[in-house]
Amino acid sequence: MAAALRVRGEFIAGASGPLALVSWEPDAATRPAFAVLYLPPFGDEMNKSRRTVALQARALAAMGGMVALLDPYGTGDSGGDHGDATWEGWQDDAVRAFESLAQRSGATPILWGLRLGATLAMQVAPRVAPTALVLWQPVLRGKVFVNQLLRLATVQQRVDGAAGGSDAARLRDALAAGSAIEVAGYRMRPELVAPIEASDLVSDARVTCPIIWRDVSATPLPASEDAAGRLRERGLAIDIECVAGPSFWMTQEIEEAPALIESTSAAVARAAS
Question: Rounded mean pLDDT of 218-222?
Fold first, then answer.
């Protein structure tokens, strides 16, 4: 008979306001075998990926883990508006959630991040010393990610017929002047954009724990292979694998990625043991 699982929602106190945590965990009589904290991607990627993330959390909980999914401040069900969010604040939120999960589970958690959440996990890891890092389709260079966001905002403003149109240079001027910009309905302050743009997954790596890296792609991604190789040269243990499946964080319809879940679950089982 399959073990009973519990889904629990709660708010914990963050530096800027309440933070929403949803946890998948074994029944109350079972001591968690390990713990995992999930950090989500940016914007609509967060919403698109919730189904696959929940399936992965449930799979890990069925293995005996306690898995907490965080909505950083200004996102999801947490307090505040997106326009109030800062990258430093999101780092503090992740640390607070990590400490809360460690206390509840009695275990040092694994940090798991998707896309920009993987970037956040890499930068937070030195502050909390996780058992391992799980990176799903990580953003390798923040500058490329921000450029894509600015192009999206430019296209949207043109579609909406904004007076005078817009372009990436004007948006960057606004940020440089200390003003917030809007991208796909999400207001972003310079204090959020600038640190994201400055991020670089390899350069930001200040960890010693094992790294479980999973890309969803029909073929291995050269940029990922190169980044993983450079991390290995620095002595890090990298378990990187490319699995077949949809780009569920950006598809029009909600998609699932069973091969990704199976591969990740097996890797986490090895790391937890």
Answer: 95
What is the per-residue pLDDT for 21?
98
Predicted pLDDT of residue 247: 97
Q: Which of 21, 70, 50 is nearest to 249 (CA)?
A: 50
Residue 188 region, left (φ>0) first, then alpha (ψ -120 to 50), else beta? beta
Alpha helices in 33-166, H assignment, sequence order: 44-48, 50-62, 87-105, 116-128, 142-160
Distance CA 72, CA 90 (A): 6
What is the C-alpha separation between 119 and 201, in angstroms, rounded?
A: 6
Residue at token pair 């243990």: 237
CA-wise closest residue to 147 among 185, 186, 113, 196: 196
Strands (E), the chain: 5-13, 18-26, 34-39, 65-71, 110-114, 133-136, 181-183, 186-188, 211-216, 238-243
Domains of the chain: 5-140+208-272 (3.40.50.1820), 142-198 (no CATH)
Q: Which residues 6+ apart lie within 8 Å of 45 measured at CB? A: 114, 115, 116, 249, 250
- The model's confidence at residue 162, banded by pLDDT at 50, 70 and 90, is low
Structure tokens at 114: 């998707």
User: Cα(260)–Cα(51) distance, rounded to whole angstroms?
Assistant: 13
Does the pLDDT at position 161 exceed 60? no
Name 240's bridge partners: 213
